[in-house]
User: Fold this.
Amino acid sequence: MIVFLLRRLLQSLAVMLAVALIAFTLFRFVGDPINGMVGQDATQAERDALRQNLGLNDSVVVQFGRFVGRTVRGEFGLSYQLARPVNQIILEKMPATLELSLVAGLIALLVGVALGVFTGLRPRAASSRFLLAVSLVGVSLPTFLIGILLILVFAVWLRWLPSYGRGTTEQFGWWTTGLLTIDGWRSLIMPAFTLALYPMTLIIRLVRAEMLEVLRTDYIRFARARGLTTRAIHFGHALKNTLVPVITVAGLQFGSVIAFAIITETVFQWPGMGLLFVQAVQNVDIPIMAAYLLVVSLIFVTINLIVDILYTVVDPRLRSTIQRPA
Amino acid sequence: MTPPVLSVRNLRVEFASRRGVLRAIDGVSFDIAKGEVLGVVGESGAGKSVTGLAVIGLIDPPGRISGGEIYLSGMRIDNLSPEELRRIRGKRIGMIFQDPLTSLNPLYRIGDQLVETLKTHTNLSESAARRRAIDLLAEVGIPAPEKRIDGYPHEFSGGMRQRVVIALAICAEPELIIADEPTTALDVSVQAQIIALIKRLGRDHGTAVMLVTHDMGVIAETSDRVAVMYSGRIAEIGPVRDVVQSPLHPYARGLMGAIPTLAGDAARLVQIPGSMPRLSAIPPGCSFNPRCPFAFERCRIERPEPIRQGTQAVACHLYDTAAKETAA
Assistant:
């Protein structure tokens, strides 16, 4: 188990290094950074001195090593646009994005699994067919369109919910939360639902397909032959067996929920990392873009690691193959 | 006189399909007494497994029991509500399926599956159920049961898993065990052990056993009586010794002739020409008539009813002596 964890950790590290390389090349991709720093009339000597000072004359490998070193310490440099340390800005914006993604992810998971089981148990019922038809809409409609439609209905026509922002937030150290006030929740509900819709419909369809599959297996038939209650069979034996693929998809989807938050945050002017990133792109604020890339990949990689560990919790067969590595 | 443990009368099972209603079981009747093993033999699709599933009430839609009656120790069970049937399943009727590798839920410890079943059907406490589970595992011949009870199915071999399945089937001491091809998926060496186990358990507890298989060898070794099924009907039923040594129905004769013997005295194994008709194309009259070397006019028109012949009963017009005489 420990060997398995170490191997997974090493793989995650490799992925992070690759991402760091991409983030690093971002800086070079937009051209010579010196041009952006000195004035039009700087002499070649001044340029060379600055180049030497910033270490830009070192080999690419050394520069990359320095970049990784700084990144590990959480130093992403100064934002071009705001002239403040990037890590401060990211930390300020992170709680908003994480709260939004977490609530969206929970909605997607809870509602998705519940409706998936429901439609899986009653594949022919009219209500199931209706839900599946609706879920098709959820998969097909782009996020920004759903967000704008929601704003139109609930904010503009009905005037029930605010159309933008996070509402009232409270401060706990560096963490700001909107989850403690009704105003915060009112602001959260539309963006969270918008963000949850796609992964939710995906999970509904997945759980349904898995349930249909598992209910046909021999061990379910044998469980019925043993006279177990329908409840124990459906929610114990069957549901647990659908969990491995569901955990995979849910984990990956949670990662993309954070990534997709870019669009939702833009639509709802949600003050999170996604909105920050979009603004950074518009202003070619490379340090923020690079930092965002790294933070999101770190979250992705961490989720994948957790998913791998969860597999072994759910499925004893994987546990024993891990203990005796192939 | 006590009623037989299982009594099936004129059972009919139909499947609704796009091409109309298919009759998988058509007028099957048989009894199994306490402690008796009835072997049910026939080709694939003859309706053996469906008969077993009908008895335990696990025919899935689009299939349904469309006629006949099933009695368990004198109590009619084919018209019970789903919930009443569930209470009988596992408690009064245990079932063993063909493939032990897939019969157990891979994510649950075998002990949990046993305890769960025990607690569903009895009032045992958690710890009492666990002790009982260990006893059961010991009874079906699993070594070191107090350790193995916490194992997962994948940690057991095929034969051991089938023993666990059997322990699950008998845990509430049912009156009837339905074993659907219990040895087909196992190694030959393990088959004999499992057969011996089922036989011993049936004897020790006085349990009636319905043993579904296509393996005449298994039937000859374990069963008291045998029913030969052909396209959803019982062609012949009687004590194993009599049916094996002097089969009456032309199909049963063909079936017995197709068993290879170790002595190898027959130059060639007898083969029945043709194959069993599909459910959608069962011929009128006797369903075996197109393949029967003795078929005559009546076989193509009138369906034969079982006729008593000594200890055996056979559904064949050849044995309808009374009718023959009047016809002549």
